[in-house]
Amino acid sequence: MRNNLRSSIITLSGILLFGSFAAAQSKQQTEPPPPLREGSASILDKLAAEGTGGAAPKRDLTGFWGSSVGQKINPLPPMTPWGEQVFRTHKNNSEYAVADSNDPDNTCDPLGFPRAMVFMTRGIAFSTMPDRVIQMWQYDKTWREVFTDGRPLPTNVGGSEKDAPDPRYWGYSVGRWVDDYAFVVETTGSDENTWLDNAGHPHSVGIHVTETYKRLDHNDLEVTVRIDDPKAYTRPFDITTAHFKWIPKQDFEEQICIGSQELDYLKLIADPGARKEAGK
Amino acid sequence: MYVRKAIVLKDATVTNFMWQNPHTLVLFDAKDDKGNVVHWAGEAGSAGSIRLLGWNKYSLKPGDVVTVYIWPSKFDSTAGRLEKIVREDGRTLRDSDREDDGDINKY
């Protein structure tokens, strides 16, 4: 049903969108292209040239950090029967044509947590407030709150009790400094509509994620992401250890998943007939 | 989704350049082995990510004749992920889905 709805939206949106392309093109033809550069290294390699930047400040992650678009994912342990069952319903972009995939990212649904710590990690940022740390993502300009005021994590997210909190795409997070340079964040209650990774591995709302952020020096930040989800996996595991570098400019290019443009993309990448029309 | 081995399409004509998020699209026409015009769609990274590689919304325009290096889709013979585009003036537009992620000064 979701695919049918998406197809309908794509069809309607496509009719409206193609008219705007011509107007955009006429503007594009008015200015010459800028000089182009060649490069040969990853963004992390280039940021590494900045060095360590000296000693890390104590108990502070504040700033803008850069990394790879996607993180290397460790081998996952076997899934439980429940995990396998959910996994079979997820159609990723590697094994399915984009028009047939149901990756939530294809419709600009939020990546949610913890997927946002393994994918679209090119830019993250932190801001520190008296009772929380705000973690922000370049992708979609979104954020989550990590409370540092000592509150406990909820234990009944998604439960039937009257006071049970609803699952959230970004879960519920609390954090604490375990020493001057290590900040540990614990999260639970992530909405089961979100995927764990691009392959479509699932998680349950009861997932417990432990992130350990280690500020190695001023310019280097390492985070290990540990997953404990006995409903979906047969044992806990570290899904990744990601490395982030301090960005000298302390700014990001805007990178947003724009729904109307994604619909446009889905139609054109999947439909040769639409390409012919859009190219007229 | 894509076979990570580029095929080369010479004398391709850009028909639409869609500078957008989360995927920039280049629509172009290229002739097949029998001389028939084929309507291709090549995707690149988001505008924000390929901007780090020197692209901007004026990098291509309809009518440009280019050489396209493209990773073909496993599912559609005329769609793919751009590896790079070489313009008539010899300058190259590389995609972000490669080892090079761009210029840190443009973050």
Report what the structure shows.
- The complex is a heterodimer of chains A (280) and B (107).
- Chain A is an alpha+beta fold and 280 residues long.
- Helix content of chain A is 22%, strand content 23%.
- Chain A has five helices and nine strands; from the N terminus they run H-H-E-H-E-E-E-E-E-E-E-E-H-H.
- Helices cover 5% and strands 45% of the residues of chain B.
- Chain B has one helix and six strands; from the N terminus they run βββαβββ.
- In chain B, strand 1 and strand 2 form a beta hairpin.
- The longest helix of chain B has 5 residues, at 47-51.
- The radius of gyration of chain B is 13 Å and the shape is globular.
- The mean pLDDT of chain B is 88.
- Chains A and B meet through helix 1, helix 2, helix 4 and helix 5 of A and strand 1, strand 2, strand 3, helix 1 and strand 6 of B.
What are the defining features of this structure?
heterodimer, A: 280 residues, 22% helix, B: 107 residues, mainly beta, five-stranded mixed barrel, 6 strands, 45% strand
Summary of the model, kept short:
The complex is a heterodimer of chains A (280) and B (107). By secondary structure, chain A is α+β, with helices and mostly antiparallel strands.
